[in-house]
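Encode chain A's predicted structure.
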Amino acid sequence: MDAPPQGEFGFIHEPAPTPMEALVGLSLLAMIFVAILALTTMFLVKRKEPSVAGIYLNIRLRQIKYLAFLAIAVGSILGLMQVYGALSYVALSGSTAFDQMAGPFAEAIVWLGLGVSVATVGLISMLLVLWRGRDLLDRHPAEPAPDRR
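Encoded structure for chain A:
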C-alpha cells in the first residue's frame, strides 16, 4: 500500500469531499440562508401593539435571541463536520502511526475549539439577553391591549 500524500511540515492533506458531503454542506448553507431570510421578513412585518417602545424592545430581543441560536447552531455544525472529516480520513487511511494521525486530529481539535467557542458565545449572549430583557420589560411595561368588545 502506498504512503498517503504529505504536504508541508509533514501534515497530510485531506482528500476532496465526496459529492454527498458537498451536497450536505450546500443544503446546510441553504437552510441557514433561508432561516436568516425568514427571520428578517418576520421582523419587518408590522404588528399591532399599543406601545412603540415595547415593539422595538421585543424586536431587538428576538433578533438577538435568534442570532445567538444561529451562532450556537453554526458553531456546533462546524465542530462536528471537522471531527467527522478527520475521523473518516484516519479510518480510510488505514494507518495507525501517530505522525499520520496528528495532522487531521490537530486540525479537528482546532476547528472543534472554534465551534465550541462560537457556541459558547452564542449561549452566553442568549442568556444575558433573556436576563436583561426581563429587566427592561419590568422597568418599562407595555400598555395593556385595548378592549375590543
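The chain is about 75% helix and 0% strand.
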